[in-house]
Every structure is written in structure tokens, then in C-alpha cells.
Amino acid sequence: MTGHILTLTSFMAFLGLWAFGLSGTAGPFLLVVMTVAYAIGLSLSFRKTFQLSTAAWNIIAALVFILFLADYLAFSRDFITAASRLLAVLLGLKLFDLRKNRDHLLSYALVFFQTLAAAASTVSLAFFALLALFVMASIWAMIIFSVSRDMEAARKAPTVSNLFGMRFFTIVAAISALSLIMSLALFFSIPRMGVGIFERKSLNTVKTAGFSDTVDLGSLGPVKGDSTIVMRAEFPGGRPSRAVYFKGATLENYDGRSWSADRGRSFIKRAGTEGFVIGPGQGRTTQIAVLLEPLDTEVLFTVPNVYRLEGSFPSVWAQRTGVIRLPSVPFSRVEYRMWTDLSRVNSDEPAPKGPVNSRYLDSSSEGQRVSALAADIAKGQSALEKARAIEQHLKANYKYTLSPRNKGGSGPLEDFLFFSKEGYCEQFATSMVMLLRAAGIPSRLVTGFLEGEWNGLGNYFIVRQQDAHSWVEAYIEGTGWVRYDPTPSAPAPPYRPSAVWLYLDLVRLKWNRHIIQFSFADQRRMALSAERSAATVMEEIKKAYRTRKAPDMGKAAPIAALLAAVILTAFLLRRRSLIKKTRPRGPGFYFDMLKALSARGFLRRIDETPLEFAERVGDQRVTDITEAFLKERYGHGKTQAAELEKIRKAVRELKKG
After folding, report:
1. φ and ψ of 77, to 5 deg
2. Mean pLDDT, to the nearest integer, of 244-257?
3. Is residue 423 scored above 80 in pLDDT?
4. For the chain, which residues make up each domain, given as ranges?
């Protein structure tokens, strides 16, 4: 029994290390140190060669508590981080002092709290595997210690040598699976709560560039080789027929070195019954569900003409330019849905007039040379034709590179247009904006992300840092703000996922969306969907009753089948419960005998004892079966295997008549 307990404790220690690593509070060095300490402690406990006095352990515990306070107040300044490290150290110390069963149980309690700390700190799919193993190990521990306590009370060793063999572990695995299923049912049914006192204040955020009020020219270049995922955008209707641009910021003012934005036209929107109503909603509607990774920006990346937005936040700041921001940086994953028109024309924003119009026509310090180039590219054409001509000129005569050379221009724009003639999206977009303005067309720079990698398994785009992009919006009279992208086709990104990776990413998406991000709004949608399905079923039944025809259940057929199965199961369980209540306790072979005799006309009266009934029947087989029944029912004896086989044979003979 002791060997089983030590093996279980070793497994629990492994789970504790795993939880410590998932919590994100342990660096590689600390994790290695704790692994070595756990291994040494378990080894000494197995050999029983190390012991300290109670006073020594009390001194060590006081020192550890002081270190915890120092970590919380001076270093981490985060309760979850400091508590997770404290638990890891306490577990390591306890592994050196496994004397009694209560010491093992205390170590399991520490692993439990480490698992809680990991739950508050990680969104990894690996946590589900950790939780499943911890549940199984906990059930294993409860059974082992219960058996151990009973054996100690009886002062004897187990009589069955393979008590904890394969059958035992199969039963434990089955109970664990049932526990997890019940936990999932509770998870989806218990109402979601708000934030708690143990919620992490922040998660590790992805550093982004190009979405603040001021953006230096060239800031997007360094992220072009970064394959870090920033968001996943799901299109339930399938892949769109045209390229998707996710807008993050619009920038109007250029000083020759950097761009800046003006938020003066932002207005706040508060959530209503239909979420956030951003605009009137025109054109062809597309629904997009976005799961945004923790970023160091408050931007919600959208596409043009968003007219409705849903998300678990009370308010947003919106602009007519299509830029939507949260009131503050969330420091956590953000999930939202938007309904939009994927047209390249932003038709919701009014025409720029007065001071606004002049801001979109401001030139750069290289104004004269840029104006001359613009006049040379687009001569005497309409605004739409001028814009197309400038876009095509940049695509055809300039080279895309992530390492542009400086060849002596007075500024980045002049150097790109007249000297190096090479660069990446920011140089191309900035040049087109300045050329358009020189031609008298209001325009601005836009930063955001291109659509990224398409995962056909789940109908969503995987957008990475390397998909960061800049493009142009120009106001064309009579049309609206039109998107232009003067950047030539860039080389293929350095990272291309395999089919296996895409499948695993789909699993991660479902885990994050339906487990980590599961909220009261999701529960409300599930309840409304179930209500609509039930209403559809009832309507079809009523319609069939009125027309005296078989109902066309359609999509409601699975719901109807499920309801019928639930009703039938409840009826059978109720019937079985009633049978158990009316049927006396005892071995089943006696009641099989009564049933066989009843078919032959021998019915036992209510006032008749089992032995009186056997005497009245006058059959030795009935007497033998009755005596075995009385022995088990009232004498607490157990029928031996050989005798039980004879009784079953006698019952079969009575059934045959």
C-alpha cells in the first residue's frame, strides 16, 4: 500500500510542476530548480533517509512566508504570480517530509491550489489535459486512502494481491470521465459571473506597431518577419471572394517623418439589445467573428461599413472612418462579432469639407517635386482615373523590399520616390497619399492587417504580425472613400503552416472561443437557440395536426428525437425506481424463481413467509433456493460459487416447467 501511495504522490508532484509551468509565473531557471528539488525530495522520501525536526520545519516555513511577501511587494507585485511560486516552494518542501498519510494529502492539496493558479493564468489547451489527469489522480487518491484507512482499522493487509491492478485503473478512468462530463455540463449551465478577486490583472500582450496616435514612418518593417498570431477572423459563410483588409487606424497628418491621427471626431457607443449600432447598414451583409489576442492597443480591427457590433464590453469609441476602439487596453483576449459590407468603398462617412478637407490635402516638405511627379503621372483625368494611374505607377516602377537603402534624399518620401525607389508598404502608401493630395484628391494613410492564412477546416483567417500592412483611402466625389493598395505583391511570408498545424489551430480556436471565452452572452444565445428549436417543433406538430398530415420536421427532427429520448429515458428510470421500491431486498435468483412459479400458477400470498411458501410448493429445488435466499438476506452470508451455480441451474429448470 505504501508503494502505491508514493507512486501517486510522485505523479501528483509531476502535475504540480506542470501547473507551475502553465501558470506563466516560472522562468526556465526556476522551473529547472524546482524539478531537481522535487526529484531529490521524492528520492529521499522513498528511501526514508532524511528527517528534520518540527522546529526546523517551522523556521523554514516562516522564511518561505517572508520570501512570499518580498516577492509580492517588491518583485512580481501580482498576487497570482507570488502565490503560485509560494505553492511550488511549499510542495517542494513537503516532498522532503512525507512521513504519514496526512503529509501526502497535504501535498495533494498544494497541487490542487497550483492547478487553480494555472486556471487563473493560462488559456492553453494543455490545461484541459492537466485538469483531466488531476481529476483521475484525485479519485485514485480517495480510493487508495479509503482502503488504507479501512485496512489500518481492521489491522490487516489486503487479501487480494492485485487490488490496484488494471481493473482498478479502468474503473478510476471511467469515474474520471464521468466526473469531467458532469463538470462540463455544470460549466455550460451555471450562469457566468463577473470578474473575481483572483482574476489576473493582465496577460502577456503582443507588442504591436502602427495603431497609436503617432506612427513613425518605417515602424511596420520590423514586424514583417514575426509570425506571432494577433487574431483569428471567422467567416461562417465561407471565404470571401475579395481580399479582406482589417483596419486599425487612419492617419491624416504627415510631417515628413511620421504620421499622426486626430480623434476629435470620435463618439462613444453604448451596448443595447442589439449590441452596438454603428451605422445604417447598407449593401451586402457579411458576418465576421473575431478572436483578438492580447495586444498592447485598444483597437478593435474592423472592415469598412461596419453597421453592427457585438462584444462583451459596455462601450466603444467609434469614428466615421471605420476605426473602433475600446475605452482602454484590455490586456486580455477580446471576442467580438461584426456585421458589415466588404466593399472597398466606405460609403458611411460624409464628404470632407472645410478645415477637414484641407487636412486631407496637406502636402509634405517635398511638395514641389511631389506635385511635379503627380502632374506627370495623371494629366487632365478625373479623380478616379488619377487615383488608379498613381496606384498603377507605384506598383509598376517601384520595388518591394523590407531592407530599403537610403540614397541621399532629404527625407524618407523623397528618397523613396526619386532615389532608391524601393521600400515596403508604408513607403508605398505614404507616397500615394502625397501624390493624391498634390493632384487635389483628399486622402489619408490607413494601417491594419491583411487577411493572412486561410484555414478551410474552420472557415477563418489566421492573421499574424507579418500581415501588418498600410494602404490608402482616397475620397472620390460621388463614390465615397475608396481603398487603394499601391504596394506590389510581396514575397511569400516566411512561415507557412502545415495541414496538421491548421487542424491543431482549429482545436485551439474552439477551445478559446467555447471554453476560455464562454460568457453569459453565449449562454443566452444557447438558450434562445434551444427555445427557437422547441418552438419550431411545436409549430410543426400543430401544423400537422391541423392539416392531418405527417409533419415536415426538417431541421427540427434531431431536436424532436432528442426530446423523445429524454422523455423515454425518464419514464424507464421512473419505472425502474418504482419496481425497486415495491420489490423486497435480496438476491435476484429468488425473485426469478418466484416469477417462474407464478407462470405455473404458484403465487406467494402476502401473509406467507418464504419457507411456508416453499413447503406449500413441495419442490426440493424451491426449498434450496429459499434457504440460500434467507441466508444472504437475513444471515449476511455469501453463497459460494459452486452452490450458486446449482441454484441458477435449478431456477433454469423451474423456468422450463
Report:
1. 55, 30
2. 90
3. yes
4. 2-189, 209-345+445-469, 521-580, 584-656
Say which residue the cell 490607413 belongs to.
446
Q: Which three cell numbers stand for residue 327?
A: 475605452
Q: Is the dihedral of CA 70, 75, 81, 87 positive or negative?
A: negative
Residue 165's pLDDT is what?
A: 67
- What does the alpha-carbon distance between residue 500 and residue 363 come to, in Å, rounded to a whole number? 50
Written as nine digits, the cell of 530 is: 434551444
* DSSP SS3 for 287: strand
Band of the pLDDT at 577, cuts 50, 70, 90?
A: low
The answer to whether the CB of 232 falls within 8 A of the CB of 340 is no
Cβ contact 310:275 at 8 Å:
yes
Cα–Cα distance measured from residue 533 to residue 561, given in angstroms and rounded to the nearest whole number: 12
Beta partners for 215?
Answer: 259
d(Cα 396, Cα 606) in Å, to the nearest integer?
103
In 3D space, the residue among 314, 310, 316 whose CA is nearest the CA of residue 335 turns out to be: 310
d(CA 130, CA 429): 48
Q: Identify the residue whose cell numbers are 500581415.
A: 467
300 in helix, strand or coil? strand
d(C-alpha 135, C-alpha 230), whole Å: 33
CA 161 to centroid of chain Cα atoms: 44
Residue 590 has pLDDT above 90, yes or no: no
**β-sheet bridge partners, residue 309:** 276, 338
User: Cα separation of 515 and 126, whole Å?
Assistant: 13
Q: Which residues contact 461 (CB under 8 A, 6 or more apart)?
A: 232, 233, 235, 244, 451, 452, 453, 454, 455
Q: What is the CA angle 18-30-103, rounded to 5?
A: 60
Q: Which residues of 526-552 are buried (b: 16+ CB within 10 A; e: fewer)?
A: eeeeeeebeebbeebeeeeeeeeeebe
Residue 207 burial (C-beta neighbours within 10 Å; 0-12, 13-18, 19+): exposed
Which helix (DSSP H) or strand (DSSP E) does residue 400 occupy?
strand 399-400
50: Cα separation from own chain's centroid: 44
Q: What is the DSSP track for 224-249?
A: GG---EEEEEE-TT-S-SS--EEEEE
Instruction: Considering only residues 368 and 514, tell me which one the structure prediction assigns the higher pLDDT.
Output: 368
Work out the end-to-end distance of the chain between its first and last CA atoms, rounded to an integer number of angstroms. 52
Across the chain, mean pLDDT equals 81
Q: In whole angstroms, what is the distance from residue 231 CA to residue 228 CA?
A: 9
CA 90 from centroid of its chain's CA atoms: 31
Phi and psi of 472, rounded to 5°? -125, 145
Position 70, amino acid: A
Which tens digit of pLDDT belongs to each residue from 262-312? 765 567 777 676 788 887 776 678 899 999 988 888 999 998 888 889 888
Q: Are 200 and 120 in contact (CB under 8 A)?
A: yes
Alpha helices in 347-481 (DSSP H): 354-359, 367-377, 383-397, 412-415, 425-438
Contacts of 202 (CB under 8 A, 6+ apart): 294, 331, 332
Burial status of residue 606 (CB atoms within 10 A of its CB: 0-12, 13-18, 19 or more):
exposed
223 — phi, psi (to 5°)?
A: -90, -5
